[in-house]
Amino acid sequence: MHTSNALAPSLFLLCSSPLSPLALSLSVCSGLPIFSSASDQLDAAGRAPGLGGPLGGASSGQPSALGAGGGGRASMSGVSRRPGVPPLLSDGSLDYDALYDDEDECDIGTMEAHGSVVTHLLSQVKIGMDLTRVVLPTFILERRSLLEMYSDYFAHPDYFLKIADFKDPKDRMVQVVRWYMSAYHAGRKSSVAKKPYNPILGELFYCHWNVPGLPAGVEPVVPDGPVPWCDRNQLTFIAEQVSHHPPISAFYAEHYNKRISFCAHVWTKSKFLGLSVGVHNIGQGCVSVLEYDEEYIVTFPNGYGRSILTVPWIELGGPVTISCAKTGFSATIEFHTKPFYGGRKHRISGEVFQPGDKKAFLSISGEWNGSMQAKWADGRTEGFLNVNEIPIVKKIVRPISEQDEMESRRLWKEVTAGLRFNDIDKATNAKTDLEQRQRDEAKDRKDRNIRWETKSFRELGDNWVYVSPLVNRVPKNGTADPSCCPEQR
């Protein structure tokens, strides 16, 4: 079974620098679980950013595992095949949008083929150290930004919107859990963990989805929404890199007609654990159901990178909670790490509770990237969710030619082109230019005593909230409790 590079909230984060917590960057920084799973667990203390740094590893003079699209996967010997023919527009220029539409990620083959870069990586770290300054090998990069990866939480938009359809609070709670558990498998199906781009300060990403079963293009647009060219029946999404030190990403999604939204902020604390890497995902998300004035607060699992000496893979670990203060319903879910000897990968177990009860009315077990089963308090058992049997709905992103300067795909297009066609020098130079630009802008602000201003999110206590949430534009049945879900203020 493939390990997905999904929206999975912890996945992304492992090897990233200004990475935030939901990301799939457990990539090549992962390692063999030489410790027991218990000793690999992270504590919640500290505010260390994730792993990152300049592009390292293969140069144009070395065999690279980036490979090429159009069948250009790296061979198991580590030698790339010839890159495919570049997609061109009618005027002969490179079609950058097609590079993002091509979701085939080239596997890196066995890590033995890259022994020199693995040795270089390990030489930079000590057990227990944070991974902020560690240089990563280029061949592990995935061709998109961490901000775009966060959109994978909504790869099944119909599951998210269905929360608002249920009349009974018990059913709504169960559907929140079902949507949450559907979010971690989505994304590219590469069998090897990859690292997304570290977003630069002020970077933005917009996208939307046409929701199965809902007509698109017939409703009025929402000009004051997060994606102002979308209509009321489309699920819209915005993400922004709101802080560089520590690296914090914030994102928000809403559906106007269903009166439902989600706001989250995430950053990470990463540790080197011997021959594995662990990332503690710090932050929370809030599902707001306006029709019932309900907010469901969710936390995120930790991420672990394994098998650096063979083929790196990702697993999630640790407890998460989902709770609704208004109704009193709650859930606890445990992402189980694989024991050193025996056991299965990617197991989860969970319990859902009614207000005031200590005995769960619903228990869930299975694999987060496969099938999950439900057992009810009355003894009934049934399938709860099988993520391999539900189609992923492709997000829609406007063409790069129409994007603003700070939008992710426009910012990173030259890096993406370099990686796609195995031109490591091009990718490295483009990434270096972006990093230098960020340093120059930071120095200029410091010299002029100017504070960085975010565009779409603002800091509120320990949280980052969207500046114009749906509840402020189409209030329904009063205002939510700001102490529970501060995005509502």
TrEMBL record:
PROSITE patterns named among the record's database cross-references: OSBP
GO process terms (BP): lipid transport
Region listing for Disordered, in residue ranges: 49-89
Signal peptide: 1-25
The entry's keywords: Lipid transport, Lipid-binding, Signal, Transport
Record GO terms (molecular function): sterol binding
UniProt similarity note: Belongs to the OSBP family.
Name of the molecule in the record: Oxysterol-binding protein
Organism the protein comes from: Megalurothrips usitatus (bean blossom thrips)
